UniProtKB/TrEMBL annotation:
Residues 146-249 form the Alpha-2-macroglobulin MG3 domain. The lineage of its organism: unclassified sequences, metagenomes, ecological metagenomes. InterPro entries: Alpha_2_Macroglob_MG3, MG2, YfhM-like. Residues 262-349 form the Macroglobulin domain. It holds the Pfam family bMG3. This is Macroglobulin domain-containing protein. Transmembrane segments: none annotated.
Length: 452
């Protein structure tokens, strides 16, 4: 419908609803750039800021408590230090945040961190801000490392490589003190970077840590130089991966990685005979197969009914090999027998915080020795004679007479004279290729009817 006259409508609008935000999660603030955190806001109202300067010894329980890193649900009962820290936690400062900003404009203002760092210039800082916000819950939690050091880590089971740099100068940071810790905040190893800012450290396997799941074992590296401290662990960071350089790799390697074999001197035995076993074990160490560090292994032998008939322990020699013997009983059941050589799971140490998890045992492929073999037991007579058949010619045509020669000898050297011979002759289709004619052959066209 068309209006006859122009219509003028006037209405009043109010101000934008209050809104603010800060970066969430974990971050790094380079100290030499001014120690500021950006705050995005419009018409801020009644914002409170809570801050806590986190000590180096509090970083791990704090981050685990705030779920920056996951605690394995099967092992929550072992993380008592996290619950203890949680109960005693309090903020250093709680104050109102009242920036002077123009109304109804979306702005970014710096939050200066120096007052919360207690004039140290460096440190681990937790900031929690809450207040009215239009789109979100109005609650933001962030953990900041205010530092002048950059740290890069390559973590593995056998070795770790730590690289420390000066973020301001872009140069390696030599003589920086490095600590390796576990989830329980226990210091496992200490060292210092060289003049190139590098330090090679033991990996989790050589530090005595245990693997409880398919994920990698968490390792924490803390680096200190002067008053500045920074940390990293193997679950945090963007990462540089081999696939980016076209290199194949295993993203879930097995550590320690064992391979072995066990054999008998022959495959077939009679009841009452002695079975001789020989085995070898190798361990993959930094990419090479070497003699294993394992010294003693358990073994078990099962009969064809899967009944355990013998078990015990074998000792490996300096070449990583072992042997054992087993005498079959006179009434041994016939069939296939199995033998397994394995590494027994370690018992829990009541004094250690690092214990095997009862609710989930790792499979034999996950860092344990598991070698298996088999042999056969049957009631049989050894062969006493040998029979051979020769054909006088290799090629025959239709109508030709084929001639065969049969000989029989006892194994002690005498001929088998005047013995009856039973034989069968069978045939099958074949083809003929003329000489000097590659690619041609004569044969029945099997996919067509015989009349063709």
């Amino acid at each position: 419908q068309k209006l006859n006259d122009d219509v003028k409508i006037e209405f009043d609008v109010g101000s934008y609803l209050p809104e603010f935000s800060i970066p969430r999660g974990m971050g790094v603030i380079e100290s030499y750039e001014g120690r500021r955190l950006p705050v995005t806001l419009v018409n801020p109202e009644d914002i409170k800021i809570h801050t806590r300067l986190i000590k180096k010894g509090e970083v791990i329980p704090f981050l685990l408590w705030k779920n920056y890193f996951r605690i394995p649900y099967q092992l929550k009962h072992k993380y008592k230090h996290v619950e203890k820290f949680k109960k005693g936690f309090s903020y250093d400062k709680i104050e109102r945040y009242e920036p002077e900003v123009e109304r109804n404009k979306f702005l970014i203002r710096p939050l200066y961190l120096s007052p919360y760092l207690k004039d140290r210039g460096y440190g681990f800082l937790n900031i929690y801000m809450e207040g009215p916000s239009r789109h979100h819950t109005g609650k933001y939690n962030t953990f900041l490392q205010v530092t002048d050091m950059g740290i890069t880590g390559k973590f593995s089971a056998e070795t770790n490589l730590i690289f420390v740099t000066d973020l301001n100068k872009g140069m390696p940071a030599g003589n920086a003190k490095v600590e390796l810790r576990d989830d329980y905040n226990k210091v496992l190893w200490k060292g210092s970077t060289d003049k190139e800012g590098l330090l090679k450290t033991p990996g989790w396997l050589n530090l005595g840590l245990r693997k409880y799941s398919y994920n990698e074992v968490r390792q924490w590296a803390f680096v200190t130089k002067g008053k500045d401290t920074v940390f990293i662990n193997n679950e945090w960071g963007t990462g540089v991966y081999p696939w980016q350089f076209g290199i194949r790799y295993n993203n879930r390697p097995i550590f320690p990685h064992y391979k072995g074999s066990i054999r008998t001197e022959r495959g077939l035995y009679r009841p009452g005979e002695k079975v001789h076993f020989k085995g070898v074990l190798r361990e993959k160490i930094q990419g090479d197969w070497k003699v294993s560090s394992a010294k003693r292994l358990k073994y078990e032998i099962k009969d064809s009914r899967n009944n355990e008939i013998k078990k015990g322990e074998v000792k490996l020699n300096k070449f990583g090999t072992f042997s054992l013997d087993y005498k079959l009983p006179e009434d041994a059941s016939t069939g296939y027998y199995s033998v397994r050589v394995f590494q027994e799971q370690k018992k829990e140490d009541k004094k250690s915080k690092i214990k095997p998890h009862k609710e989930r045992k790792l499979s034999p492929r996950e860092g344990r020795v598991n070698i298996s073999g088999s042999f056969r037991v049957e009631v049989f007579q050894p062969v006493q004679f040998d029979v051979k058949v020769w054909c006088e010619d290799k090629t025959y045509y239709l109508g030709d007479k084929a001639r065969f020669r049969i000989t029989g000898w006892y194994l002690f050297g005498a001929p088998m004279s005047s013995k009856k011979v039973a034989y069968t002759v069978s045939g099958r289709e074949t083809f003929y290729s003329p000489p000097d004619n590659p690619g041609f052959r004569f044969s029945k066209m099997r996919w067509l009817d015989d009349k063709y």
